[in-house]
Amino acid sequence: MNTRYQSLLRGLASLCVLVCCTICSESALASDSTAVDTVKVYELGEVIASGSRGSNAARVESADFQRIPHREIKQRDALSVSELAPVISAARVQTNSRGESLLFLRGAGERQIALFMDGAMLNIPWDNRVDLSLIPGDLVGQMTVAKGAGSLLYGPNILGGVVNMSTLERRDDGYGGVARLAGGETERSYSILVDGGFNDFNFIVFNGRTNSDGYLLPAELAEVGLENQNPDSRRRTNTGFDRVLSYARIEYDVSEATTLGFSVNDINAEKGVAAETHRGDRARFWRYPEWNRTMMTLNARHVLDARGKQQIRATLWLDLLDQTIDSYRDETFASVEERELGEDVTMGGRVTFGWSIDEHQQLNFALYGYDSRHDEDIQTLRDSTAPGGEIVSIVDESARAGYGQRLGSAGVEYLLAQDSWSMNAGVSFDAASNPKAGVFPVQDGQTDIGLSLGGRYELTSAAGVYAAVARRTRFPTPREQFSGALGKFVPNPDLQAESGLLTELGGDVKLSDFRVEGALFYNFYADGIAKEKLSDGRERRINLTETLVTGGEVALWYFPVSWLDLSGNMTYMHSRGKTDDGFDQELEYRPEYLAGFLAQIHLPAGVAFAFELESVGAQYGDNAATGEFEQLDAFTLMNTRVSWKFLLSRQMAGSLFLRVNNIADAVSYSQLGIPGAGRSLRGGTELVF
User: Fold this and answer.
1) Is 70 exceeded by the pLDDT of residue 462?
2) Does the first or last residue of the chain, that is N or C, have fewer Cβ atoms within 10 Å of its Cβ?
3) pTM value?
4) Which of 371, 373, 286 minimizes the C-alpha distance to 322?
């Protein structure tokens, strides 16, 4: 995208934020509301709208369709979305050698999972993944998670699950806000949110900044002395970051039948990348000196008939991303060797039509698609001496290339609910093409069919069982097919789509003080995209024959007394790739189990105490330095939190919290050569008005 056009769009985004801020200020001054509002979320941004399936809709949603409320999200004190994974059963976040924090669900890889913010896709089509450490957690009001065989309305490229994050919203008349300050030994964070609702109009404006000098290593590792690590400091070398988020949204009820919402989300960040500790000078020595992303999203809902049986919902978005990757010569990070300048422009949308045929039947139609372009300039730099004697890097060579992907899907879903049972069935036609492929000729498009079938039976008013099966497709990304990744990969333009057969059987029991949900799953993948090593040390992505992930998960909640809440979850997985001898090949970074536990004690005078436990089983990683698979040991992290909530007036409340993460200073690895943080302290305060 040319600079002039990009500047114009960013200027438009800034203007939208400014206009919303002005409206916010004037409306706030005009309000005489004195009540502190309760937390609500932006329902217009939901992909699968509650209530759009008719009165029996809840029974169609299986136990793996999880809604995580704001109180559970807030309990984590998360500075980024990457810290919210423990509230999702069967989920974990892995930090890779590129410094990206990526989500895995039930053993499904990061490119097999879709993430949305208010219905707009967060995955960047160039690589079909997103770094969750750069997405602030402050705005998230609710998360909706669908694992396994989710609805076809989400679109293609989903072989493992979906997470949609809904932002906060105020729908009662009046205005209010939240101001937060938080920090720790190496980090600092602030945010302020102002929102309001007046008659048919509501708004929200948010600004926040978080920066860190880098996380602290466990003392045990600091004493050993790791490669590519400053021996004089426990602070992990090159892990500092700085991130600023500005967000604004307005929503307007045009009439009883029509509602419109428009939001602007702008993130500006820079961050370092921890170099792997087992690869010596072959590790990545990277920094992101610039990561700027602006998303503009339009949501709309229109009811076609007086009884609300026919409804159209639409989400359209424009996504602009600029990022720079500096590749350094060594662990001193003193001299830049290569620089990658990337620009991404994505325009996407989803339109759904829901028809409640009667009180038992619902029919949904969906159109989904995007057009994305990625332009990059890879520069080779050399050191030069400036007139003043300073050593500077100048561009020696430059290679420009452009890539693109177009993806589309059309689907239909039928839902039926009777007295004690319900079922759903769907079919979709999915297609992808690459109108630009760098130095390669334009590729032929790929197409496939998606299918889903599910059913649920209510054993009693408090217990039910369900079963689901789906066939889904993920098309290869332009990066997987055509990019050399700064010389580390050999492109494979002939890479084909991978497909998955996802099955699960589960059930749940819900009583007044106890709830348990469980599922068994069997996920079979054909033509799975994986990496192979070449004789020159580089890698190439290929289609493997078959992979298999089987397992089960259980989650429970128990409230034995009014002042004690207990919850826990555990997932067991067996992940294998097929060889000539059967399914006996280990798969990378698929832990044997995941487990979590949370105990909350509510004391008088607004004081609360929480104890958290996170456990990850043994897993394997491919050591590029030795060419062998190595086992990463299981680990358990324990966290604790104490908080105090208090009232300052009828209009204002406050809170204080203190959190200790990784109390035992335990050693953890999410990937070979990428150690996790040691013990850390975080505290903060919040003012709600």
Assistant:
1) yes
2) N
3) 0.88
4) 373
